[in-house]
Amino acid sequence: MGVEGIGARVTRKEDKRFITGKGKYVDDIRLHGMTHAQFVRSPHAHARIRSIDPSAASAMPGVVAVLTGAELVGDKIGNLICGWMVHSKDGSPMKMGAWPAMAPETVRFVGQAVAVVIAETKDQARDAAEAVVVDYEELPAAVAILDAIAEGAPQLHPEAPGNRVYEWSIGDKDATEAAMSGAAHVVSMDITNNRLVPNAMEPRSAVAQYDAADDHLTLWTTSQNPHVARLVLSAFYNIAPENKLRVIAPDVGGGFGSKIYIYPEEIVALWASRKLERPVKWTADRTESFLTDAHGRDHITHAELAFDADHRILGLRVHTYANFGAYMSLFSSAVPTYLYATLLSGQYVIPQIYCEVDGVYTNTVAVDAYRGAGRPEAAFVIERLMEVAARQLRVDPAELRAKNFITQFPYQTPVILNYDTGDFHASLDAALKAADYAGFAARKSASAANGKLRGIGLSCYIEACGIAPSKAVGSLGAGVGLWESAEIRVNPVGTVEVLTGSHSHGQGHETTFAQLVSTRLGVSIDAVQVIHGDTDKVQFGMGTYGSRSGAVGMSAMVKALDKVEAKAKKIAAHLMEASEGDIVIEGGEVKVAGTDKKMPWALVALAAYTGHNLPEGMEPGLKEGTFYDPTNFTYPAGTYIAEVEIDPDTGKTSICSFTAADDFGNLINPTIVEGQVHGGIAQGIGQALLEGTIYDADGQLLTASYMDYAMPRADDLVSYTLTQTNTPCPGNPLGIKGCGEAGAIGSPPAIINAITNAIGHEHIAMPATPSRVWQAIHQALAAE
Amino acid sequence: MTTVTMTVNGRHVSADVEDRTLLVSYLRDTLGLTGTHVGCDTSQCGACVVHVDGRAIKSCTTLAVQVAGSQVTTIEGLSTGTELHPVQAAFRDNHGLQCGFCTPGMIMTSVDIISRHGAHVDEATVRHELEGNICRCTGYHNIVKSVLDAAGRMSVAEAAE
User: Which of A19, A252, A720 has its CB closest to that of B92?
Assistant: First the structure.
């Protein structure tokens, strides 16, 4: 490890602009002649639009246009798509309800856009939007999962009888039943995974600019994957062909999955900009974000885990209802299927697993991937079952887990995935030690002496990252390949530009990607510029989600660097009259091993561009590109331990300590990795203790501001104890696994296991608010 | 419309604004100081924190006309020249930011916390005082570390003066 290379804790290159207020986010963009969009949104969860009267609004000051869903459909703007086809167990394709960017006839969730006002200023647009008169015929709404699948429930889409998107399954049903039939012990649970709102701090925003002279559109947007946005806008929404559409995602203020998707507002901004020949800007306010950003999680599950008399697992049976909201968002179909059920084996040898997932439409906003996406839901199911099983079997939860750990790799689970490597005992042991598990009994007694209930909870998670081998996901229904691209451009003076299809919205790519170049080419990280997020600069890329930028994005860079290095070595060997195999590149110099011959890196680069003295037949220049397609998922895993103290009089849970032992393989920048874990844990604790998304029976979102939705704040949390183990990933050249989501995946079961351990009552729903904990304590007391 | 005059980052500025214009809109749209952000519109998240006459306030729920005659400091005016303010430097050195969106407000609030509580501010106080600034990326671990580090640096700087 050099001072700036792989493994170094360098400070981030991108920080200077953020700490001085010079970041450039979409809402910071101001264009000449720019107009402002304000959407008219449905106040009803389910209604037919009888009429829209824009006349009063159109006459208001500054109003440029009022446009409706009917006009949008009339201009043949395509319906929103779901890009991953999932089939039901009977072989039928998932049932897709039509989703126009603005509703022409029927609205199916509160907040759905029906019209847009374009005005000279934002305030004028807001004032006029209030004057658009929409006459609705209210329809009964199906809001909660179980209400939507009940007999006689209001139906959302004619295409989807019974509000079912699909009835999917994985695993061998009969074999699982046979495996579980003779079990000595079966633990059975009903589990709810609460609905969450991703809440990136930067609200979504879009600026669209139409250039009539060139018939060309530019979109600045808050996106995690601008190339996917351009592809979808071109191929499905009829906005413009790809060569006539540039998509730029500049500084983006967090995503967590919610900025993967191409939303109606971007489509409308582009369409309106072309129609009006004016730039159009839209920025969500926070309540619009709550109402229209894709939500996450929202499962109802029944699960059974069977053990033999020796406490070894025999089989797992799971049935999950997954809420999709009113429409199928871009990757939603894959989340409760291929990103969820495939992880149900956890860290354990489970001979048979069978899981059924029923996808359900409800009159709520769409649900799609949110940090972890399916994997937190899977970890919660298996880790709650293991904890409860240990309590019922009266064995130590750590011992029960360890007894069932997978220890031989590669390991083929019964649910598609093939774990390439891991050492689950190592991370468990590291966590137990760091958390002083052995000293818990004494701490519990001390708490009891103060009238407090103390609990400890474990969670041994595994997840699948580095999404994904294109062929594999293609065979499972994905509409795209999930490779990544990279281009390395060495300038004539030896400085380097990295063009990547990954997108940084907080992950620190400008630093970590430069660290890789520094290690390989011996240049300072200040001599490296990382370029991303612009379809005019980077040819194509799949973006950042699923903790894929290191494992896939940087692997693409490695392949491009291999080519650059090979060519540079050929040039240097030629110039120094040495053998190519003897050339080494380090510390800004290119040397002939075993001699004192050397030349500066910059002169090799210059030689490539002057072309005066290159090996026979070699093209000038030093620039190489690659597309890298992974061969497998990567499998980060670890053990998290939460210790909590509960005040039985109020039900308030205080976190005493939170310990994480993660195995992410090799680390590029440990400081940035730790930061990712911190943030993930906070979101996981948020899910476990604070965050609840509540729609009332009529489909009104009651938690649509930060005064109603409990975001984790500094005084809700503690400083975390982090430690790492390392089994390098064998599937990619850097041996890295990905660290972006682990915190959010591993922490909710650890917290709930700690609470239930403290109160001696297993049934507590997330978020475990003081009132729920207080009630559970009293139910436990009543049962005694 | 009302003519509003104030000093922003040491610069005397005057403009006609609607009475309903928020201070954050005035800073961002009229003066082009886009370092101050809007994250929630309800004075919960603190992305919009600026200093008015030396005190941290939330500019998304303050009218521009309310601060007429005041001294306003935004993130752009916190440091002078090329030298970073100790709180800015501490956020960078402790990885106290990821996406950067909440960062200007976090830094402006942190400066205010340290100026009120001094160099020996403890973690519990920092966590309590940061309650009005929401970050979704960092889990606050490194933000708290940054503020404590900055408090130490500022005390050293004060001692050196």
Answer: A19
Within 49-68 of B, beta carbons closer than 8 Å to A belong to: none
Structure tokens given for A32:
């000449």
Measured in angstroms, the CA of A505 and the nearest CA of chain B are apart by 5
- CATH number for the B86-160 domain, one of 3.100.10.20, 1.10.150.120, 3.40.1180.10, 3.40.50.300? 1.10.150.120
Mean of pLDDT over chain A: 97
Closest chain A C-alpha to B41 CA, distance in angstroms: 7
Which two three-digit tokens encode residue A740? Answer: 């972006």
Q: Which residues of A432-443 are buried (b: 16+ CB within 10 A; e: fewer)?
A: bebbebeebeeb
Distance from CA of B127 to the nearest CA of A (A): 5
Write down the pTM of the prediction.
Answer: 0.97
Report the alpha-carbon distance of residue A115 to residue A122 in Å, rounded: 16
What distance lies between CA A369 and its chain's CA centroid?
A: 6
Which CATH entry fits the domain spanning A19-139+202-253+259-292: 3.90.1170.50, 1.20.120.450, 3.30.110.30, 3.40.50.1100?
A: 3.90.1170.50
pLDDT at A2: 63
- Quote the pLDDT of residue B161: 54
For residue range A600-634, list pLDDT tens digits in order: 999 999 999 999 999 999 999 999 999 999 999 99
Partner residue facing A706 (CB), from B36, B40, B98: B40
Instruction: Please compute the mean of the pLDDT values over residues A53-64 and round it to a whole number.
Output: 98
For residue B81, is pLDDT > 90? no
> Are A714 and B144 in contact (CB < 8 Å)?
yes
- The 10s digit of each residue's pLDDT in A273-327 is 999 999 999 999 999 999 999 999 999 999 999 999 999 999 999 999 999 999 9
Per-residue pLDDT at A779: 87
Interface mutation vs chain B, best among A9, A10, A15, A290, most B CBs within 10 Å:
A15
Considering only CB atoms, A711 lies closest to which of B29, B134, B142, namely B134
Interval A79-83 mean pLDDT: 97
Q: Could you tell me the residue ranges of all domains in chain B?
A: 2-77, 86-160
Contacts of B42 (CB under 8 A, 6+ apart): A286, A705, A706, A707, B60, B61
Nearest to B42 among A11, A14, A706 (CB): A706
Q: How far is B60 from chain A (nearest CA, A)?
A: 12
**Residue owning tokens 């439409």:** A361
Higher pLDDT, A782 or A326: A326
Interface of B with A in 8-27 (CB under 8 A): 18, 20
- Give the pair of three-digit tokens for residue A401: 């887990």
Interface test with A, best of B121, B141, B144, B148 (most A CBs within 10 A): B141
CATH of domain A483-628: 3.30.365.10
Q: Is B123 on the interface with A (CB under 8 A)?
A: yes
Q: For A254, which of B18, B93, B99 is closest by C-beta distance?
A: B99
Residue of chain B nearest A201, judged by CA positions: B39
Strand pairing of A216-221 and A299-307? unpaired
Beta strands in A331-452 (DSSP E): 352-361, 411-412, 418-419
Pick from A254, A671, A682: which is nearest to B95 by CB?
A671
Contact call for B136 and A683, based on CB within 8 A: yes
The class (CATH top level) of A299-467+632-783 is: alpha beta
Q: Are the beta carbons of A458 and A435 closer than 8 angstroms?
A: no
Measure the CA–CA gap between A382 and A404, rounded to whole angstroms. 12
Closest alpha carbon within chain A to B74:
A21
pLDDT tens by residue, A692-701:
999 999 999 9
Q: Give me the residue spans of the domains in chain A.
A: 19-139+202-253+259-292, 299-467+632-783, 483-628
Q: Which CATH class is domain B2-77?
A: alpha beta
Using 50, 70 and 90 to split pLDDT, how confident is the model at B45?
Answer: very high
B91-132 confidence digits (pLDDT tens) = 999 999 999 999 999 999 999 999 999 999 999 999 999 999
Lowest mean pLDDT among A155-169, A235-249, A464-478: A464-478
Which strands, in side-by-side order, build the sheet including A653-663?
A453-462, A637-646, A653-663, A721-725
